[in-house]
Amino acid sequence: MNDKLVLIDHDQYREYPAPEMSERAQSFYADMRRRRTVRDFSSRPVARDVIENCVRTAGTAPNGANLQPWQFVVVENPQVKQEIRLAAEKEERSFYEGKAPQEWLDILAPLGTDSSKPFLETAPCLIAIFQERFGLRPDGRKVKHYYVSESVGIATGLLIAAIHNAGLVCLTHTPSPMGFLNQILDRPRSERPFLLLVVGYPAEGVKVPDIDKKDLGDIATFI
Ligand code: IYR
Predict the structure, then answer these.
(1) What is the pLDDT of residues 11-55, one digit of tens each?
(2) Which pTM was predicted?
(3) Closest Cα to residue 161, out of 194, 217, 199, 128?
(4) Is the CB of residue 170 less than 8 Å from the CB of residue 37?
(5) How confident is the model at residue 93, as a pLDDT?
(6) What kind and span of H or E run contains 176?
């Protein structure tokens, strides 16, 4: 007998009639396929309550043993954004001007990326996402975390969907390495930077690369 297990009714589950289910699946896909990663941001501020609810949505993600091994640091302070930009551009210069193999640079060419990251200052909001490699009990003892990358990856996916659903745009930015985020944002060694999400409104007249997503037949197999 497991005396730790407490079961409650799942009274939040909703079954939809079949036609409504089909319509919901179709229209969610239609809406999600409108999402584009944007690299030119307006400086227009975003409402705090919107960001809060997007982060709450991320926090609903399924995750290893429900230990919720994530931290989201929302940066709006211009000085802190500038520090992040300077540190990220330093890493990016060493990537684009040396570390990156030509094969990688070639595959990035259609995206038009380079080491200049002005959006880190222009965009009103940066969300630094950290993986908690382990938890800490109040007495300082470590709690092992499980499936941390999977959990934080799923949470980040939900966050991106929530941002899109709210009518904002974002950019998944991955300067590498990202250790500078621990220093600038004063995060403990137990937290590893996962990625930096740049959030806001698109710049007026924003353009995006002419790229496509694979068809269903190229990503799924039904057996
Ligand atoms: N981190 C670099 C390079 C980069 C890598 C991949 I893979 C991308 O899809 C995009 C960029 C940068 O942010 O420019």
Answers:
(1) 999 999 999 999 999 999 999 999 999 999 999 999 999 999 999
(2) 0.96
(3) 199
(4) yes
(5) 95
(6) none
- Which tokens sit at 202? 């698109």
Select from 113, 173, 195, 208 the residue to mutate for testing ligand 1; criterion: most ligand atoms less than 8 Å from CB: 113
- Say what the pLDDT of residue 1 is: 78
Which CATH number, 3.40.50.300, 3.40.50.720, 3.40.50.2300, 3.40.109.10, labels domain 35-204? 3.40.109.10
Largest CA distance in the chain: 62
Give yes or no for a contact between 69 and 59, defined as CB atoms under 8 angstroms apart.
no
Ligand 1: which atom is nearest the Cα of residue 176?
A: 1
Q: State the DSSP H helix or E strand holding residue 108, giving kind and residue range, or none if neither.
A: helix 102-108
Place of tokens 């899109």: 164
Question: Is the beta carbon of 173 within 6 A of some atom in ligand 1?
Answer: yes
State the DSSP code for 177. Answer: S
Show Cβ contacts of residue 113 under 8 Å, excluding neighbours closer than 6 positions.
39
What confidence tens digit (pLDDT) does each residue in 115-144 have?
A: 999 999 999 999 999 999 999 899 989 999
Contact 173, 121 (CB under 8 A): no
